[in-house]
């Protein structure tokens, strides 16, 4: 098998070099935890003694408050869609960190509130209810802070799995934006009531820097840049083609689209400017290599948003933000590659199939033969580069029929020596991962992108 | 500061309470005689005014068995002073606090002031007479050293609320609930006054100072405004939850 | 769920450890903090004594991290007889809440430290029995 480089690769000048394992997934958390240590050091240097039960409880309230304030800034930073973070750490991993960090931060916010009320009540010999109303009504910025607190609580409640099951992703996403408001409202009281900031100029400056910096990044990457991009690229829907039952391809035209820089395997966030879809930007992978004047995505109608895409009219304006995602040729470590697709997970893999150099095998799993979208293209690509495609259909209870260690090894000789790019629904991805591990593929060579944010 | 070993001190149990005499002048024979006379005077007042003795003048007057004209002149003086105090205090000092004639709220302070005057006329100019917690001060504790009067904390036994410094003749009277419980009643309702834990009044002469202190304590929440407007008197009050308030001029005497 | 319990327990343990490592008494006068007020003698109407060590001394305003504090002290014959707080932090509810508690307490302490030298005690009317336990009786016994 000879490796063929496609024109796209050549024009980019991408060299197939041996990639180093990315250091970002370790470095970024290390920096974040260093910040935590810095915040604790602030409390330590500011506190001379902890006296009596009131002192302990108020002290704990201050520590949790500082950590919560820091946590809010970091949470926003993780979701600011910084290309640097996104391309190295990966969008899905950032989202998982954000979710975990969010749970921690809301717990800290709750602990902080309760501890401070309790501690202050003890110091001033009042009851808790009286102290709460004193705090809320008479302390600077506390009315706003209280509203922020309630918004945080509500967000926490609504993000619980039990609540999310009951609402559509779009609704939940919309409500989650209230956290911007919560952070904004809560910021004031941190500096005006925070004992560790009173009279401590360096600490105040550092805090302002942190928050203003994060705010600037969020504003730039989530608001300004997409608007600028939108105006520059003038993306419009050109056509919508059905590919398979419930699956459509949306063709988009525009200008300077190569500047969006979508490397095969990446996705963009698409904001379709129609009345029902304008308020959200949803991620879809490019299902064909990016062309300076043409982009394509292939979408399965799974929820409100994706179903609405089938009804898009040509000429609809679109704003695209990105590219995002680390599911790219960068991850590859060995010459042999297996692309393992389930259902609509074929979309990024179709692009990689066309462009990834070296020996590439594609295994495409779908429930029925007619669900195998883009089949014609895949066959053409396979023929052109003399690669192998296996279509696997059938089976309803799980995917146990062919996605086993045995089944995969039969289809792909020397499986253990392959890099595997895996993309599909969560159930299929789990089964496939287990099978691959059992077949001897080391975990570090299984590259998976999850769309479950 | 040397506690002067010269001088004269005496403790007398009378009127159901304890009177302490602290005389810093040289105890000349005249002064000693004056002290005896003052003690005698206290016992006489007790005989005439004690409401605990059914045969005292005031008890019989209260029962209507005798008329005012049949009583010693001191009774008329006390009744006159009570009427004045009742007017000034808007009725919060009353000579019939629980329905029966009882000028005790004024008598004790009046007795201390009288004892102090007896000593003064005999030549003792630096004296402190303490009648059950209400004090009349004259002169100095020592050359160039003013009298210092601690005010007992009503809620924390053994502690002081503040210390009053007497730069001139001064009377310090404290009304409260500390030892005898709620024995001061609201004359309008007949129920015990409970709005304050104690009220300390500072003024020139003990008779009216003691009386106004009692009236203010009975008055409770309205006392502060009344006392602010009362010229020549300054007050410090402790509330049942441990809080304190002072009239604006109190800082001249203590913190 | 178990992971959440572990994280929660670990964090609480960390917070407790941090609090435990700090000293648990209020440290003595901190020389790096506000310098002690330099007394400047201003005579007041209330002071009639002429001997040295008598009068009201108003300290310079001192800037602390929470605000400005200024105190005036009345000294009579070398002893503090009154403490008056002229300025204290009161910018916000927290300051006011703390001041209303702390300042009376502090003036109490200053006075109490010298209460051994009072001459008499004024209190609510006591009976003969009550007198026996009173401060006044202690004073009387010391001298009679």
From TrEMBL, chain B:
EC number: 2.7.1.180
UniProt GO molecular function: transferase activity
Pfam families recorded: ApbE
Organism superkingdom: Bacteria
UniProt-recorded name of the protein: FAD:protein FMN transferase
Class of this enzyme: transferase
Organism of derivation: [Kitasatospora] papulosa
InterPro entries assigned to the protein according to its UniProt record, in alphabetical order: ApbE, ApbE-like_sf
Keyword Coiled coil applies: no
